[in-house]
Amino acid sequence: MNRTTLLALASRVEAMRGPTCVVDVEIAIAVGYAGENSEGARDIRADPDDDGWLLFEMAGEACECCNRAPPYTSSLDAAMSLVPSMDCADWDEGIVPAYFSLSRSTTWESGPMQRGWAAILHPVTHETIAEARASTPALALTASSLRAIAGSLPND
């Protein structure tokens, strides 16, 4: 994972008007997702012939396998899978998932417009680690999760 790539993706997701499988693939590649039954996958890349699909090679095998990228930008369930776990050994907790807060609102500046807001919170201190505002709650949670993951990485 690359901090700069994750932060750039978070900004792109936050600015999006709606979901897209092309960005879902970029996120899956950035976070190292390979899909079901793909432990040991390497060389994860986008399928140039089909948007929304990932290609990867299995360790020790010459064959290519494929999986559809999770719909991070359209599904709260998929977006929740990005919420990082954190090392809380200082609090005798071990590795535990972070909390998140999520809300949706409607603004009326030039007609009704839905907006989502999400924050990733430390599981022990409940301090905000990352947050995002986007056009949908799934986009906001995806963007804030990508920022939280990036924040745990060293500078490039």
Describe this structure in words.
The protein is an alpha+beta fold and about 160 residues long. It has a domain of about 80 residues: Double Stranded RNA Binding Domain. Helix 1 packs antiparallel against helix 2 and helix 1 runs antiparallel to helix 4. It is globular. It starts with a helix and ends in a 5-residue tail after the last helix. The mean pLDDT is about 75.
Topology:
Blueprint: H1 3-15, H2 21-31, E1 41-46, E2 53-58, E3 64-68, H3 76-80, E4 85-87, E5 95-97, E6 99-107, E7 113-121, E8 128-134, H4 137-151
Antiparallel strand pairs: 1-2, 2-3, 4-5, 6-7, 7-8
Short description:
The protein is α+β, with helices and mostly antiparallel strands. The protein has 4 helices and 8 strands.
Number of strands: 8
State the shape.
globular
Strand content: 25-35%
- Class by SSE composition: alpha+beta
Rg measurement, Å: 17 Å
Element pattern in H and E: HHEEEHEEEEEH
For the biggest β-sheet, the strand order reads 1-2-3
Q: What share of residues is helical?
A: 25-40%
CATH architecture call of the domain at 72-151:
2-Layer Sandwich
At the third CATH level, what is the topology name of the domain at 72-151? Double Stranded RNA Binding Domain
Average of per-residue pLDDT values: 77
Distance between the termini: 10 Å
Q: Can you count the helices?
A: 4
User: Which spans of ≥5 residues are poorly predicted at pLDDT below 50?
Assistant: none
Main pleated-sheet profile: 3 strands, antiparallel
CATH class of the domain at 72-151: Alpha Beta
Task: For the structure shown, list the relevant keywords.
Double Stranded RNA Binding Domain, three-stranded antiparallel sheet
